[in-house]
Amino acid sequence: MDYNNELFGGMVLFCAVVEQNGLTAAARKLGHTPSHVSKEVARLEHRLGVRLLNRTTRKISLTETGRIYYENARRMVTEANVVEARIQTLGDRPFGELNVSLPVVFANGFINRWLPEFVELYPDIILNIDVSDRKADLIGEGIDLLVRIGTLPASDFMTRILFHTAMVTIASPDYLKKFGYPRHPQELASHSLIDFSIHNLTNIWSFQGPERQLVSVGVSPILFCNDPNMEKVMAMAGSGITRLPMLACEAELQSGTLVRILKQFEPDPAPVQLVFPSRINLPAKTRAMIDFLVAKSK
Prior knowledge:
Elements: H1 11-20, H2 23-30, H3 34-48, E1 53-55, E2 60-62, H4 64-90, E3 96-102, H5 104-121, E4 125-131, E5 145-149, E6 158-165, E7 167-171, H6 173-179, E8 193-196, E9 204-208, E10 214-218, E11 223-225, H7 228-236, E12 241-245, H8 246-255, E13 259-261, E14 270-276, H9 284-297
Parallel strand pairs: 3-4, 3-5, 8-11, 8-12
Antiparallel strand pairs: 1-2, 5-14, 6-14, 7-12, 7-13, 9-10
Helix pairs in contact: 1-2, 1-3, 1-4, 2-3
């Protein structure tokens, strides 16, 4: 396809001259000087290699070629104005496909309960939700909105914190009764551990001491998995100790089916935050989801 940057140059001015029946009237309507309008029409004729207007000191008239050009140009200008008005109208209305990537614990802890309300509020938005803890490519995958837990690396993307969640170390009452209640992270070496992993197996758990010093513990988990629900189920079954964001196990901690341990060594709560490309010309569909999540997280 031949992309001509001047393809529509002068077209709007030319149509205005014809419709206003004169350079001066067209200039007044468009907010230009008559000399500017005259130069733009002359430039258009030069580019096309034809005369479009017959000019006298008192009036103008279309040449035969000018009439053909005007009839087609008028249609294109009218259609362009309709499209622009349509887009401006749509810009205020949330619609279209919204691609969202969510971590598993956030989806299970919140989104699954909130989505029916969002769908009812915004029937013109088609949701495409990826529930995964993988590293997602915001731009490459065309994702409109990410939700991520933890501190993120520096980037040009916009972020907004929804809330903070503690990373808690948990086990079942039966496990602790049978194998003992660790009082210090170093004691974990003698316990069965369950760890989260997507690609690389980890062998270090990091804690924060009472003086905010880093406490690193070498661990040898009996199970690695990339599903926090499996971690929780295994811990509830008494298979071992694991670590999860509070939002993933709050109900179980309240009911007593899981017990929070090593609380005095927990690191600072991690942010749960939204990530999106830019605030500039943010689509209404994305803004609707951001505002919805912010309101629900209060």
